[in-house]
User: What shape does this take?
Amino acid sequence: MAETMLKEDGHLLLPKEVLEYLHLHPGDRLNIVIQNNGDVVIKSNLRDVRDLKGILSPPLSRSLLRI
Assistant: This one.
């Protein structure tokens, strides 16, 4: 478990081990989820490129147009 402190301006500094585990860099976005049991979960908003497979429809067949 990693511990951090909330600053007066509301900023939260994540420990280096958390940044490395989530592969985070400055400017990356995070999702913060409050679970039904009250637990707070921080997830990386980064997606693996393999997750994108199949999101586009196949290309339309293009017939050669001759004029």
User: Anything to note?
Assistant: The chain has one helix and two strands. The mean pLDDT is 83.
